[in-house]
Amino acid sequence: MAGDITTKTIHPVSRIRKTGKADLLTAFERAELEKWLARYPEDQRQSAVLGALRAVMHEDHYLSVPKMEAVAEYLGIPPIAVYEVASFYSMFELDEKAAAKYSISVCTNVSCMLLGSDDILAHIESKLGIKLGDATPDRRFFLKKEEECLAACCGAPMMQVNHVYHTDLTPEKVDEILDGLE
């Protein structure tokens, strides 16, 4: 029946003009995209965008516009559909400055703040010699501007290093964590 939403394809792959941008994706990224695409019906390729962006972040440590456009072309969806997801979730970095080996996010929400996250943040800035939103000159560490909540209030104050949670922080524990990274 015409107009029936169940028979309508929102972003058919055949309608997206191929520009060769998908060639920017590495073999690892393509393999990850294929794993995500296997989970969804052909007409729901947009559902794989979150997993696709995580794969690109794993490789590049941030999302460049060309890589987001490559993901869009590979999935057969409009680039804006990728940009919307990338800009909505704080787990994605859109600034090349974030392209460091280790991305550090310190929770600054009320539970962590009341239990000393400001002191933890000041300690990290002092230890690494950088401010929020900066990377170390060797691109080893990036200190994310702000992380409103990481949903681990029972372990406040806490931080994430490359999406791994570290809770009940003290300056000494932060030193141990950061010094233990390869």
Write up this protein.
By secondary structure, this protein is of the alpha+beta class. It has 2 domains: 78 residues, Arc Repressor Mutant, subunit A (Orthogonal Bundle), CATH 1.10.10; 84 residues, Glutaredoxin (3-Layer(aba) Sandwich), CATH 3.40.30. Helices cover 38% and strands 8% of the residues. It has 7 helices and 4 strands; from the N terminus they run ααααβααβββα. It has a 4-stranded mixed beta sheet with strand order 2-1-3-4, covered by helices on one side. β3 and β4 form a beta hairpin. About 7% of the residues have low confidence.
Compact overview of the structure:
The protein is an alpha+beta fold and 182 residues long. It is built from 7 helices and 4 strands, in the order ααααβααβββα. Helix content is 38%, strand content 8%.
What distinguishing features does this structure have?
single chain; 182 residues; alpha+beta; Arc Repressor Mutant, subunit A; Glutaredoxin; 2 domains; 4-stranded mixed sheet; 7 helices; 4 strands; 38% helix; elongated
